Amino acid sequence: MAGKIHIMETVLRDAHQCLVATRMRTEDMLPIAARLDEIGYWSLETWGGATFDATLRYLKESPWERLRKLRAAMPKTRFQMLLRGQNVVGYHNYPDDIVEAFVSHAAVNGIDVFRIFDAMNDIRNMKTAIEAALKTGKLVEGTVCYTVSPVHSADYFLRLAEKLADMGSQIICLKDMGGMLAPYAAYEIIKKIKSRISLPLHLHSHCTAGLAPMSYMMAIEAGADIIDTAIAPFSQGTSQPATEQFVAALKDTPHDTGLDLDKLSKIAEYFHGVRRNYAEFESPVNNQIKTDVLTSQIPGGMLSNLVAQLRQQKAEDKLEAVLAEMPHVRKDLGYPPLVTPTSQIVGSQAALNVMTGKRYSVVATETRNYVMGLYGEPPAPVSEEVKKKVLGKKEPITCRPADLLKPGLEQARRDAASFASSEEDVITYALFPEIAKDYFLWRDGRGERQQAARM
Fold first, then answer.
1. How far apart are CA 385 and CA 390, in angstroms?
2. What pTM, to 2 d.p., does this model score?
3. Closest Cα partner for 246 from 2, 5, 19, 39?
């Protein structure tokens, strides 16, 4: 794949997750689907991440039905999804049988490429999902979560990539969810990985700190094969660089994408109108370069949601204090990369520390579970002081967290028998029991049939 640069378009997943709190509806995707299908993207990100939860919780839509409708409307383009390893599309580890069932059904319904990561970069939390995806015959992107800390180096990322290649990954993804990857760091890491691993390398970043366009160009020079971009109306800010920007920049070079700017401009015109539909979910940070992300390390998708959550609590003025507290919490917890769910864990604990005025006087359940080791092994040891505050005399686990979980699919099938009408309903219930039940009752007219909220 050396030479030509391939594009994954993120407008139907990560771009709107970052810029409008994951609220784009399927009805706003389908009218442009045929044009998207004609572009010739390497892949189109259509599913995963926070979209599964958001479609159920906020939009009263079936995520499975969204995937099927998009697949029917775009038969020619590879569909890609973001899968959180043992967390699937949720916020904690699930039993292996639920992971396997989800991956199998996602493949049947239209996913061609599984980008599989773990928030801790704990390979043990990725193994089941990778093996399940390989079993379907689809492509696996083994993913390295990029972050900056005293324990993360180019050699650290190389070792992780080598382990993912050994597990059968067909593509290596370097995932810079916080937009912190600087140009020369991108060059060093990608050059090192490409010199040792003969697999395509896919780079994902965000424009939060203004670095991504420069880092992409250096990554291309270092041998990257695929980059993530978003059509212009949903680009920049906490989203990805603009698709058109790179199509134009690489035109008539050895890295020419081969994509048509005129066709892209028609898609952009459509999405300009769509974005206006979601103005209430816009965040002030969307149109700013926020270099303080290099300190807070908060990923783009979480930043817009954190602003929304603080606004709901009439505490938006606390945002800067929460962002300033996050690196301290992250250090205390052993420098985890900040991506779902670790970004939420660190962000929520930072918010509690700020709101209470006393650090760790109130400890979130998720923080306690993290310190117990239930999310995996941190890159560095957890602070002994914090460990004592959180766990008392208890000792963290040392095994793979999912080894402690009993199979869960049959129990979910029994629990959901009165309102699940398909195997996909059972899987959805296994992942999000309360949200799924509310949605099913609403869908079937047995709950309060209110108009699906945009809030």
1. 9
2. 0.92
3. 5
